[in-house]
């Protein structure tokens, strides 16, 4: 969205819910300053919501976790909701997911609670408007950066949200995601993991367990990372000099329980790592509810890169 785009208030927050954050593609080029990237925890669903709403890559959307959010439109809006099924309704009528719909002035949009998945993405044609901080509006509450006020604040009742005026009278492109693109978040996912530099330091038994165990998602999971519960993994390395941490990095602390790091992770860490989840697998893990099971499968960088480039080709290059 261009800096010259006009923005007008178009949505009022009737009830804020536990966690609804503004997220564009993320904040890059600042990790040497100790600032994390932010951005959508589920990049896949965020991209689809924007695409179906008729927005270019990188447009800011709302990431809604757990539900509990109630919004009222102050003018007619074209929207798309992708990701988790949080029981969304418009004036008590179910909202179709993974497709473009019209949200009429005065209608109340309610996100109830998870039916499947954890995070839903609400994209409005034109995109949500906010002042960028360090080149992004991505909201990272822990660092008090981004969001609608620039300070990483959560939404509050009575807030009024501005939308960029879209170009053209009607949105172009696909209005509904094909069936194969819609994820069933009730299924136990198999997550692609690229082996890392320290993987050879884990015992043979630990490596067997790492890739042959169905790990359970712990209650201790947020936008920083997801702790997984299962057999204790043992590493011959006692400690490491802290090094940079990438999205999806799977650390193994002293208790032997892996932690997969997500968008709001710290920028450096000193625990040995099994490797890193592919970007799309990190997105899939971000939709897992506590208690859900996941499994790792080792992958080489070649196939992972081909899959990721194909993903970007659909969303990024067709809407530059």
Automatic annotation (TrEMBL):
GO terms for molecular function: ATP binding; hydrolase activity. InterPro entries: CT_A_B, Cyclophilin-like_dom_sf, PxpC. Keywords: ATP-binding, Hydrolase, Nucleotide-binding. Signal peptide: none annotated. SUPFAM superfamilies: Cyclophilin-like. Pfam families: CT_A_B. Residues 32-315 form the Carboxyltransferase domain. SMART domains: AHS2 (SM00797). This is Biotin-dependent carboxylase uncharacterized domain-containing protein.
